[in-house]
Amino acid sequence: MPATSFIRLTNIALRGMTLASKFLLIFFLARFLEPAELGLYGLLTATIGYALYLLGFDFYTFTTRELLKRERSEWGGLLKDQGALSLALYILFLPPLGLIFIKGLLPWSVAGWFFTLLVLEHLTQELGRLLVAVSEQLLASLVLFLRSGSWAVAVTALMFIEPGSRSLEMVFGAWAVGGFLALCLGAFRLKQLQIGGWHKKVDWSWILKGLKIAIPFLVATLALRGLFTLDRYWFESLAGLEVLGAYVLFMGISNALISFLDAGVFAFSYPSLISAHSHKDSTAFRQGMRKLLTQTVALSTAFILIALLLIGPLLDRLEKPLYLEQQGIFPWILLATQLYALSMIPHCALYAQGHDKPIIHSHIASLLAFIPATWLFSQSWPVLAVPLGLCSAFLFILLWKSWAFFRLTPLQYRSTCS
């Protein structure tokens, strides 16, 4: 077996183990905890996921392309600059995040875990992105497994064996341990890469240049991620914390599709598309897009069919009537996830060509589409309003990015015609 194929298969296997672990965790949390506790877990994870962008400012979108353009002897200076920016953002944003607890959006009992997990998630996320950018996808998957999968397996086994461990405190503690181990592994590998340029002084002018590029991406990302945070708080206000537990369960299953595509498709596609475009190789670009389209459609369709077949038996095993009663939400969440996955096809092509504005504009507009659509649906179908609002927003994104792709991509990069 060629080395590239072996690495990809191992990478997919690690990501698959991570996804299976996360699913196992969600499933057993639904089994062993009350629905309201699962709802609180969902609120905390969504809020951490949103706050991550305040600590990173999506600066990696600038750093990644800069790293790919430069020699390894210069990488240390770029990473040092990004670290200096992150430190400044920590000082700027960590104190105001306390308002989440002051305003009662989350209870004070989880405040310590929130800040601990937020910092660990940010550091390990940035290390993982760096490893992907420098073609260390396999190690990036291992870091991700430690960060998101290994601890989930451990705490699930513990909760199964020892009933006294069935608490959110135990889950958050295991999460912190997994994040710390992932951080150590990523930092160790970074040291092994023998990157040069660390002695350079922090270049604030380069950071400002990057911020001018990254901030529009940040605004777009905050708008898009706002959907995955606002949806939970809005759903709770419409249906209550217990029913939110069912929504969190179904969303956790559906998001496995995006994680799998990230690992097996997108992580390999966008670097090759960037390289093909930078070398003006239209044939390689077309081949990369064809492969991206085929793999995304095939994997997402297979995932949805399997999920629809298995969801009934899985919910039966939970032995909690609430989840079965809310099963009608699941197909709509799957549809929203499928639309989001399809939108990543033109997204990767636009990003590889440096066409950032359509991506930014579509993400901002999607939040503006989500809010009125959800409000409108809530007048007649309050429990389905949020999933239907997500479907509307992601369909909007898919159409916008597809239109931009055909409008901005030169003919030779999307057709065999000269």
TrEMBL record:
Subcellular location: Cell membrane
Transmembrane portions of the chain: 12-33, 39-62, 83-102, 108-127, 139-160, 172-190, 211-228, 248-271, 292-312, 332-352, 359-378, 384-406
InterPro entries: Poly_Biosynth_Transport
Keywords, sorted A to Z: Cell membrane, Membrane, Transmembrane, Transmembrane helix
GO cellular component: plasma membrane
Major localisation: membrane
Topology versus the membrane: Multi-pass membrane protein
Signal peptide bounds: none
Protein name: Membrane protein involved in the export of O-antigen and teichoic acid
Organism of derivation: Geopseudomonas sagittaria
